[in-house]
Amino acid sequence: MTALDSSILLALLVAGEAPVSGDRLAKELGVSRVAIWSRLERLRAAGFTFAASTRKGYRLKSVPRALHPALLDAHLRRLKVTAPVDWLASVDSTNSEAERRLAAGAETPFAVLAQTQTAGRGRLGRRWHSATAGNLYLSLAFRPFIAPERLKPFTLWMGLALCAHLEAACGVKLGLKWPNDLLAADGRKVAGMLTEARLDVDNVRELVFGVGLNIAGAAKDFPPELRAAAGSLELATGTRLDPNRVAAETIAALFEAWESFSEGRWREEFKSRWARYDTLTGKSVRVGLRGDPVAGVVDGIDDEGSLILRTGGRRRQVIAAGEVTLRHP
Ligand code: BTN
Q: Domains in the chain and their CATH numbers?
């Protein structure tokens, strides 16, 4: 990616349907018209199409389906995201990459995302399938210096913020399956979250929030064993989305969600968002992690985001972490 590519795309995005002349682009960006023309040719080769008229100028007609660093950067600039966001063509895992960068002393906050992951990680040691098909594999990194117990509702809050954002931005109502899955109305998993932290006894030193969001994945992009369970925003909405726009807007929303979490403003909306997006209350479930799985009926969450389970009679159990399976799906 070059800054010039991103600046040209930003100017065209901001102009929308109005054409922008090569002359104006050259003047505003301080380069020659030939330089603009040759950048546009390179962008064309990368899958962009421009409507060009000799008198009026250029208009952005269509964009690539894959995440493209210059287009993503242009959207992030349009949205005024100031934290560094690094695009990688391929990496083992964006969470591992963020952890390596934290260990090397990178300033926070920052984000790293990849077009594909060779060892994408899910919860409980699972793999996260990371096809190159216009999905988002993203990690945000922070050094929060907060007490570890304050972190308890963090993943849940980020998931609720993501549901609220995607409903507003893409018109899709996803549900949150405690604690880390975002599901479409048909139950297919559209996103998963993986939070990892380095803790001291009284401080969270480093925090990595990873999210895999299937934006443009079609059923055929998932391996056969995942086809019944995996979904994407495009499958859920039945519309074609621009992965770069969705990715940039999601990154902006997640940085905002982090800010409201670290400043303590999240509590204002936590309960109402839970009421809107929760998929489990009233359901008969089994929750397992270590030891014997616990069966019961979900009775909501407590103030810290732990799951409350009615386990028979008046007995109730509060569960801070676990894997939920529906008993009568
Ligand atoms: C889950 O549902 O089990 C969590 C999946 C989290 C996947 C994301 S993709 C980006 C980030 N990097 C990883 O290796 N994992 C997370």
A: 2-62 (1.10.10.10), 69-277 (3.30.930.10), 284-326 (2.30.30)
